[in-house]
Amino acid sequence: MSTDAGAQERAPSLPFPLQENERVLLVARKHWVHLWPRTVLYALLAVVPVVALGWVWSRVADLNVVYWAIAVVWLAFWLFRILLNYYQYHNDIWVVTNQRIIDSLKTTPFNLRIATTDLVNVQDMSVERNGVLRTLLNYGDIVCETASERGNFRLVGIPHPQEVQLFVDKERDRERMRAGRG
């Protein structure tokens, strides 16, 4: 979870423009548990078959160019999957500004999905944290209910969800008071 000073420095690299007089207050991304287990799994799926096939192939015949070609293509495929996994993790962000909440997801350099809701339109917020792993590592989902057609605005896998919820509640109340909607 980033605070105002750290988030403000990253504002120019956001995949969306800020509105007039809008300041980034918080930038959050999914908990690391959404990155590393899959990365380790992909690395194992890349290396174990190459080593096993190499061991079997070396018992039957010399390792030749066919084996090495297959191994390079296989490892390149899994390296690409690992890099894409990191890209998706790094580009799945939630930004809280002094005016709105933005959910930005870039699954590839060619796909971008942005959803926003104004802070003053957030009617109710709840934290969902089910399971032992989520409790031990302190991450969960934040559900913001809004008055829009979309209804719920869900931030999935946020570290320290209660702290983020409290932060958004305070900013929402501050924005409502400023707008005269208190």
How many strand elements? 7
End-to-end separation in angstroms reads 28 Å
CATH class categorisation:
Mainly Beta
User: Order of strands side by side in the largest beta sheet?
Assistant: 1-2-3-4
Instruction: Compute the average pLDDT.
Output: 87
Strand residue content = 25-35%
Helix-strand makeup class: alpha+beta
Task: Write a structural description.
The protein has 182 residues and is α+β, with helices and mostly antiparallel strands. It has a single domain (1-11, 22-182), classed as PH-domain like (Roll). The protein contains 5 helices and 7 strands. The chain has helices at residues 4-10, 36-60, 65-90, 132-137, 161-179, and strands at residues 24-29, 92-97, 100-108, 111-118, 122-128, 139-146, 152-159. The strands form 2 sheets. It has a 4-stranded antiparallel beta sheet with strand order 1-2-3-4. Strands 5-6-7 form a 3-stranded antiparallel beta sheet. Strand 6 and strand 7 form a beta hairpin. The relative contact order is 0.14.
Detail the topology: elements first, then pairings.
Layout: H1 4-10, E1 24-29, H2 36-60, H3 65-90, E2 92-97, E3 100-108, E4 111-118, E5 122-128, H4 132-137, E6 139-146, E7 152-159, H5 161-179
Antiparallel strand pairs: 1-2, 2-3, 3-4, 5-6, 6-7
Helix pairs in contact: 2-3
What would the keywords be for this entry?
5 helices, alpha+beta, 182 residues, four-stranded antiparallel sheet, 46% helix, disordered N terminus, PH-domain like, 7 strands, 29% strand, three-stranded antiparallel sheet, elongated, single chain
